[in-house]
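This part of the workshop introduces the protein records we will be handling. Getting from the letters to the tokens is the skill we practise here. The record below serves as our worked example for the rest of this section.

…
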Amino acid sequence: MSRTHGCTLTRMTPQEFIDRWQGSAAAEMANSQSFLKELCALLDVEEPQPTQQDESANTYTFEKAVTFNNGDGTTSQGRVDLYRQGCFVLESKQGSERKAAEQEQALAEVTRAKKRRTGTAQRGTTGWEKAMVKARQQARRYAEAIPGEWPPFLIVVDVGHCFDVYADFSQSGKNYIPFPDPVSYRIPLKKLADRTPAAQSSRGADNDQTIGEVTLERLRLIWTDPHALDPAKQTAKVTRELAAKLAELAKRLEARTNDAGEKLYTAEDVSHFLMRCLFTMFAEDVQLGGFTDGAFTHFLKSRRGKLDTFVPMLESLWQTMDTGGFSTVLEGTLKRFNGGLFEDCTVLPVTDDQLELLIEAATARWEEVEPAIFGTLLERALDPVERHKLGAHYTPRAYVERLVMPTIMEPLRAEWEAVYATAVQLDDDGKSAEARQVIREYHDKLCETRVLDPACGSGNFLYVALELMKRLEGEVLNALRDFGEKQLPLLTIDPHQFLGIEINPRAAAIADLVLWIGYLQWHFRTRGNQQLAEPIIKNYDNIECRDAVLTWDSVEPVFNEDGTPVTRWDGRTTKPHPVTGEEVPDETALVQELNYVSAKRAQWPKSDYVIGNPPFVGGWKLRQVTGDGYVTAIACSGGLEC
């Protein structure tokens, strides 16, 4: 039994709840509140409170009154089916099931011009999908009318059938997207009782919950602690822990010396070795290109006490990943990875403790890494100068989205909404083929939309743009399917559309890696085991390692009249101030001044959108950081007198 606000509801099992409601008829007003009250009992959360006369007190209630701003100086009234402050707005609809023969007939009728569709809100028809989209739009309008907040979740319920879930954790109201993705945002009622074991991992802690239990917990958190479902929060901890392990491993590898006290490996040697390692760890986690779950981790563990074979065996594995073929190390056939990452298969020898750090990193869940912050943390982890900043501030994903949303996503989504409305009208007129065509044309355009970050660093802004565009693409493909498309297009949004310019070679390499990891994460999240064309990693040359402001024919070192080099601070190495503790320039970190010969303004690749967070260096700091020669070259290239 479940007691809520003085009322006692029978606590049903998930299957009993499903059996009770899945046969309910299309009677939204009659069934909605009873259904939702019993859902609350099933979730073991309090049921909605009685409506108060003071509207501000109605923080969790049915039929919450809201006032719409109609945009023309007038207002109108509405009522939210169910609202919980700080959690969600819920819009309730109810369609009805058809028998198989009736459903088949209805689908045939959809393609006939200007014929009356019986039950366009009935499940299994294009009309029902349209009704669910319309309900989502209505839910967003309700959310907009809630004073002082944008709830993180919108829920559209078809009573007795399914829940469609949308989220905007930034709570800006501009990015309600299918949650957790366009494939699994719809929760069929029958899923609440699914006894199939949830995903397990041979490398991490087993998840002994069933799919039904995981689904119920997701709904429970939407009611009680919605921000606990924010993927950025869930993955940030994993990402920081992995970066810390890689930083420690990089530090130990760089510290190794020969008998003469000379360093064995440069920072660049270590960086490239570890980037190949981490992508291999990621490949096994998502079972990419022939990798099986835990295969690489098993190899690493098998080298305990056998470090003399570590280098040749790992080199052999990477050579196979570069070309494709049978791997004697993994005892299986691998696809061709290529893309430049494994062209150099150099493996650094490791000690026992360094092997253990590799194993610790490999046992983490690499498919849960958040690329939006991973790039920055990896860059710091692999950079001896920046490594001390590993735990310091990085640009949070929410800040990146604040730039990407208005710059890229709002225009793209506005265009999509117009395209969808056109498709709906065409379909209503019986022109289903034309409706699908306008959607395909928009998808084609989306797959050729190019985004440039001219100071891309390790690629965080480009990745967020890629992910948000992939989410929109998922909605477009869902709509194409709903309008009767039998075979979805092979063309898809991929890294070739995301262009970057970055002067730091390490950061540029990481940006390319981040985009591919993010793209492949999304592929497996939404398309499962659908085959990837070889090579899996393609060398698009979309991240250019160069200066974004200037080009020049050559550089010349600057000397004093007596022949001594003219030097300046290197512009990046800092040390703690002895009094304040703040980071200040390290006066011992010097580089030679340079003259830039025949400098001129750099050209950027063609793109549809330009985003980024360029490093701002202004005023007197410009000369301190970049040098006299660079500042003079900028002035000359801009037409100033030099």
Observations:
- The chain has a mean pLDDT of 87.
- Residues 397-428 form the longest helix (32 residues).
- The radius of gyration is 29 Å.
- The CA atoms of residues 477 and 488 lie 7 Å apart.
